[in-house]
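Z., the sequence and structure:
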Amino acid sequence: MPHAYASLGQAFRQSFLGHAPNWYKQTIIAFLLINPLMLFVFGPVVTGWLLVLEFIFTLAMALKCYPLQPGGLLVIEALIIGLTTPETLYKEVEHNFPVILLLMFMVAGIFFMKDLLLFTFTRILLGVRSKVVLSLIFSLMCAVLSAFLDALTVTAVIISVAVGFYSVYHKVASGKKLHDDHHILSDSDVVAVHHNDLEQFRAFLRSLLMHGAVGTALGGVCTLVGEPQNLLIGHEAGWHFVEFFTVMAPITLPVLAAGLVTCLVLEKTHWFGYGAELPEPVRLILWDFAEHERLSMTHGHRAHLMIQACAAVLLILALAFHVAEVGLIGLMIIVLITAFVGITEEHAIGKAFEEALPFTSLLVVFFAVVAVIHQQHLFTPVINWVLSLPEAQQPGMFFIANGLLSAISDNVFVATVYISEVKQALDAGTISREHFEKLAVAINTGTNLPSVATPNGQAAFLFLLTSAIAPLVKLSYGRMVWMALPYTIVMGGLGWLGVSYWL
C-alpha cells in the first residue's frame, strides 16, 4: 500500500505542468506557497509586486512551459487571497473586449487566406534569383501583410513554405522519391554529395525566416491591427485605423525604411549569419516540385484563390474605412470565405481558432495581473516619477522602459499595463490630451520595436522558435538573438530618437 501511494504521488508530480523541467515546477509551487505568507507579513502592495515579477518569470520562461498554466495558477491564487476581485477582472476584460474580438476572429479569418499567402510566397521565393532582392521583398511583404492582417498568421505562412521546401529537398537529398515516407529530422540518409548544399540551404532559410519575422515587427507597429496591443492602445486613445497609422507614421515609416536598409546591408556584408544563397541544385529541385504542383492545380483551387484575394481586398477596405469593430470585420471574412469556398463542417472551421484561442486565454490572464496592478496602485509611483520628469524627456523614458521590459517578458502585457496607467493620468487631469497621445506613441513603438531583441518579446518570434522549422534549420534561441541584434540596435535606436525628438 505505501508503494501504491508513492506511485500515485509520483504520477501527480509528473502530471503537474506536463513536460516542464522539475526545477520549473518546484519554482511555481514555491511561488504559490510564498505569496499568502508574504501577504500576511508584508501586505498586499509588496505581494502584488512579487506577483508581477513571478508572472514576468513565467513569460520569460515561455519555452519551458506555455505561460497560461503557471500564470493562470498565480492569478487564481491572487483572486483567492484578495489581491484583486473577480468583479475588477471582469471590468478589465470588458473594457478590453475589442482586443479579445480581434484575436478570436481576425486571426481565424486570416487562417482561411493561407492558400493565397502560400501561393504568393512560393512564387516570390522561386521567381527571384537575387538573394538581396529576395530578402528585401520577403521583409517588405511580411511588413505589409502584418500591417493589414496578423503577424502570427504571416509567420505561420512563411514557416509552412520553409517546411514544405525543406522537406522536398531533404527527401531528394536522401535518395528518396517525393511520394516516399521520410523522417526529415535525421540527416543519416542524406547522400554525401548533398551535405554542403543542405547546410547552405539551411542558412538560406534561416536568414529569410529572420528577415520575415523582423518584417512582421516593422509592419506590425504601423497599424491598428498589426499587433494585439496596438488595438488596445488605439482603443484607449480613440484612434481608428487611418488615424492610428497617421499618428504613428513619423516614427514607424522611418524605422521601416531603416529596417529595409539594414536587411540590404546584412545580405551584402554577410554579417550576423546572413547572406547565404540558395544553391542552384536545390533551386532546380524546388522549381520542378513547384511546377508539378502548379500543373496539378484544379479549377476549384484557382477559384478558391480568387475568392481569398477578393476577401483580402474587402478586408483592407473595411479596415481603412472602419466600417465596424476590427474583430467583427474578421468574423465577416470568416463567413464570406468559408461560404464561397464550401467550408461548412464545424470541425473544419474549428481548426482556424486553434492558433488564436490559447493566446486569447493568456490575454485574459494578462488582464487579471493588470487588475492586481490597478487595485493595489503598484505602478502609480513609477508613472508619477516618470511624469515628474521634464515633459520632453517623458516619451523617450517610456520608450526605454517599455522596450527593456518587453524584451524580457511580453510586449502585449507591458503595453496593457502602461497604457492603462497613462490613461488614468489623463482622466485624472495630470497630463494633457496632446501629451497623452505622445506617450501612447512611445508605448506602442517601445513595445513593438526593441522587443525584437529576444524571442520572448514578440509573439511571432516565439512562434518561429517553437515551430517545426526551427530544429530543421538549426535556429536556436541564441542564434535568433544574435541574428536579431543588428535590427534591435537600428530599430530601437531610431525609434528612441523619433519619440524623443520628432513628436
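DSSP finds 24 helices and no strands in the chain. Residues 241-269 form the longest helix (29 residues).

Let me know what you think.
H.
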